[in-house]
Inverse folding.
């Protein structure tokens, strides 16, 4: 299944987003696997690139959708107080803007909608020494106190200055505490990075700044063995749901988000 994504439309979509000024996004009928395969084979054709943009649903955009109406707090309707929009940018823990400053672990925000198979694009900027994460297939409910109890985490980190994490499988673009990325084409604190996550029938890809850096299967024997050796070993529902919310984490460090958009895959 993963062979069809060796040259995904995600890379080319970034350039089209720039050309169009991130406009023209709407929620249109979902994409079939056959159509996705055909788009991949013909990904150099501009017409297909433009049509693909119409499938993206904007959860936040500094230019076209600078509100938090697509989000709630984890296990609550209200947006947690440390999340705010500043000059059009979605910002968390604004006072945790230096290596030695951290506002304390806070509550994540989660998408109102649920997603199973999808492509996700996130533009983020990290403060010096910052730590955060993006989780998917998150389950809410009284049985869970935090999103990371159920949702696999794409790690966001300032690798150069972060005081808390140094192991390869806890660095930026890793599946946190499970898999290290094959490469780390990240830009340092203060610069914008672009995350891509693709999930299709348990096959997952992590992208960073246009480069595929990690692939894994949520049901593989290797994945299950790694879970037994990770901090998720005692979380029976971790990475099991197959569908759920997308979440952005408050780890107490300042992180800014310029764009969050998702595209369903069927």
């Amino acid at each position: 299944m993963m062979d069809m994504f060796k040259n995904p439309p995600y890379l080319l979509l970034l350039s089209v987003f720039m050309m169009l000024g991130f406009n023209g996004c709407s929620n249109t009928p979902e994409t079939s696997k056959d159509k996705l395969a055909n788009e991949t084979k013909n990904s150099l054709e501009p017409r297909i690139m433009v049509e693909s943009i119409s499938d993206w649903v904007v959860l936040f955009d500094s230019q076209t959708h600078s509100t938090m109406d697509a989000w709630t707090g984890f296990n609550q309707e209200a947006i947690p107080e440390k999340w705010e929009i500043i000059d059009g940018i979605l910002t968390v823990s604004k006072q945790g803007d230096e290596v030695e400053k951290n506002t304390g672990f806070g509550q994540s925000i989660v998408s109102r909608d649920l997603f199973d198979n999808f492509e996700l694009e996130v533009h983020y900027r990290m403060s010096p020494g910052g730590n955060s994460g993006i989780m998917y297939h998150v389950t809410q409910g009284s049985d869970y106190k935090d999103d990371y109890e159920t949702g696999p985490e794409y790690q966001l980190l300032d690798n150069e200055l972060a005081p808390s994490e140094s192991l390869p499988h806890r660095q930026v673009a890793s599946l946190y505490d499970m898999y290290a990325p094959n490469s780390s084409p990240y830009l340092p604190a203060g610069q914008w990075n672009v995350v891509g996550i693709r999930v299709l029938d348990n096959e997952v890809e992590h992208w960073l700044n246009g480069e595929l850096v990690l692939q894994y299967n949520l049901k593989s024997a290797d994945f299950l063995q790694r879970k037994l050796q990770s901090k998720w070993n005692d979380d029976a529902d971790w990475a099991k749901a197959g569908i759920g919310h997308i979440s952005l984490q408050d780890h107490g460090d300042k992180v800014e988000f310029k764009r969050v958009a998702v595209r369903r895959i069927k």
Notes: The radius of gyration is 17 Å. The longest strand covers residues 255-264. Residues 9-20 form the longest helix (12 residues). The chain is about 15% helix and 30% strand.
